[in-house]
């Protein structure tokens, strides 16, 4: 049973408002409109003649037909059912069957601001129609020319919050991924601490650094992202530690869009060497590790996080869950006050 929309659980299930979320890889969207279910909504996305991406709720205001079954007209889309035309800002520009009716000129469809960056389409999950969103602020690994990255995208059955928990749990690498070429070392027991940052916090092992999956950073920069580093042997090529940046989006209560950018700090010939090694040697290994996570999480029961016995290794998970719940509560209180 779905939770009522005015509960903390429902807010978290569908994704917090007024945040940027990655929707899909850029190459998902071509000239024809597509429909994607994300963030508790069904969306239609398309490209105009200049290649710019637009997004609306996939719902014609006339009779509720899916706009994704319509025809692209530049920055407008014409509903395939009765020809009603809606501009990318949600304004109805034409009702061919009844010219001049009240529907024409109204902003009758929720529109969404989108940006393309690092091989992905990002959407600002606004509470309602807004004229201008805040900037999309990503970590330096995705914005600085000193880094080179590859996007790894997949969809998992299960809540996106289980994916968040998984990344906020460095200790699982020591066990679940112990056969990995990059996570075979380090102590099998550890103490952890939490260190606050300007944008979030770091959950890290005490007394162990650059050995295994030793820490995770969570940050809020208008988009929620996590970052971790895994030490690499020299056989892994130039660029120092292997960095993973993750951001996760709910498709539904039981399905998640999972984005991981795999990054190295490289320049010049090192960049070319890293990219060659990744595609020809490392990518398959990384997918194997990710599949271990997927296999574990997809077989967890939907209520597994309601029947837990947590201990010291789980302080990061607890802190993140509490923080997200506090954000959801604040969102509900703000909506109630309006």
From TrEMBL:
Domain of life: Bacteria
GO molecular function, one term: metal ion binding
Gene3D superfamilies the UniProt entry points to: Naphthalene 1,2-dioxygenase Alpha Subunit, Chain A, domain 1, Rieske [2Fe-2S] iron-sulphur domain
Pfam families noted in UniProt: Rieske (PF00355), VanA_C (PF19112)
Domain Rieske: 20-123
Keywords: 2Fe-2S, Dioxygenase, Iron, Iron-sulfur, Metal-binding, Oxidoreductase
Name of the protein in its database record: Phenylpropionate dioxygenase, large terminal subunit
Lineage of origin: Bacteria, Pseudomonadati, Pseudomonadota, Betaproteobacteria, Burkholderiales
